């Protein structure tokens, strides 16, 4: 099992703990415990757990999992797992519907479609600029906004000793070639005060 497989397995395992009444912080701790039990040596980025309107937040800088925000009977949950295994990074994210809500369901489905089309297009893109423009136009065409505060839809995957060498999929790196690196694809979209994203790593 590599770091990415560990991240995906941790996500699938932790979903059973998403019961109404659990707090963001309690769930984040549970996710970290699961990653550790699966063999993670640590996290290269702190665990992201966002319930309800907190799903607009992309980074821990703007939002820490709260012990005072509790999962509702009908809710939307954004989770992002970043384990380290053998010095390598994993990075995986899902947005999960709790209960039944047509608006949340539509947001999640649109986010998944935008992710899947962006992920597929990355295989034929030559540069960061090509991929960013494709994804951003797709987001706008569906009436959403890109929520990342730094205006990116993902980043390069490095190892634990090279965090400062991360390259973001944004206009700032327009001419950087995608080939020969691993990339985390994660367009985070929002509308009406809620957000959603899916994320997975691809080697190009």
Defining key terms:
single chain; 204 residues; alpha+beta; 3-stranded antiparallel β-sheet
What do you see in this structure?
It is a single chain. The chain has four helices and twelve strands. With 204 residues, the chain is α+β, with helices and mostly antiparallel strands. The strands form four sheets. Strands 1-4-5 form a three-stranded antiparallel β-sheet. The protein has a three-stranded antiparallel β-sheet with strand order 2-3-6, sandwiched between helices. Strand 4 (83-85) and strand 5 form a beta hairpin. Helix 3 (102-122) packs antiparallel against helix 4 (128-141). The longest helix has 21 residues, at 102-122.
Task: Please provide a brief summary of the model.
The chain has 204 residues and is of the alpha+beta class. The chain contains four helices and twelve strands, in the order H-H-E-E-E-E-E-E-H-H-E-E-E-E-E-E.
Silhouette: globular
Mean pLDDT over the full residue set: 95
Question: How much helical structure, as a percent, in the residues?
Answer: 25-40%
Order of strands in the sheet with the most strands? 1-4-5
**Class per helix and strand makeup:** alpha+beta
Largest sheet: 3 strands, antiparallel
Which range does the strand content fall in? 15-25%
Q: Please, how many helices?
A: 4
List how many beta strands DSSP finds.
12
Order of SSEs, N→C? HHEEEEEEHHEEEEEE
C-alpha termini separation: 20 Å
* Radius of gyration from CA coordinates: 16 Å
Low-confidence stretches: none
SSE blueprint:
Blueprint: H1 3-14, H2 24-37, E1 42-43, E2 48-51, E3 75-81, E4 83-85, E5 88-89, E6 92-98, H3 102-122, H4 128-141, E7 145-146, E8 154-156, E9 182-185, E10 189-191, E11 194-196, E12 200-203
């Amino acid at each position: 099992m590599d770091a990415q497989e560990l991240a995906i397995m941790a996500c699938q395992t932790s979903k059973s703990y998403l019961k109404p009444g659990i707090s963001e912080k309690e769930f984040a701790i549970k996710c970290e415990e699961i990653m550790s039990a699966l063999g993670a040596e640590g996290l290269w980025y702190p665990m992201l757990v966002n319930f309800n309107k907190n799903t607009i937040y992309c980074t821990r800088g703007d939002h820490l999992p709260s012990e005072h925000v509790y999962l509702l009977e009908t809710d939307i949950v954004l989770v992002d797992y970043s384990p380290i295994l053998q010095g390598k990074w994993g990075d995986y994210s899902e947005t999960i519907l709790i209960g039944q809500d047509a608006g949340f369901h539509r947001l999640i489905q649109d986010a998944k479609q935008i992710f899947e089309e962006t992920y597929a297009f990355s295989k034929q893109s030559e540069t960061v600029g090509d991929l960013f423009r494709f994804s951003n136009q797709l987001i706008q065409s569906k009436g959403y906004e890109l929520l990342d505060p730094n205006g990116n839809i993902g980043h390069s995957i490095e190892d634990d000793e090279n965090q400062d060498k991360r390259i973001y999929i944004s206009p700032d790196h327009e001419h950087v070639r995608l080939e020969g690196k691993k990339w985390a694809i994660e367009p985070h979209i929002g509308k009406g005060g809620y957000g959603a994203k899916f994320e997975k790593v691809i080697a190009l």
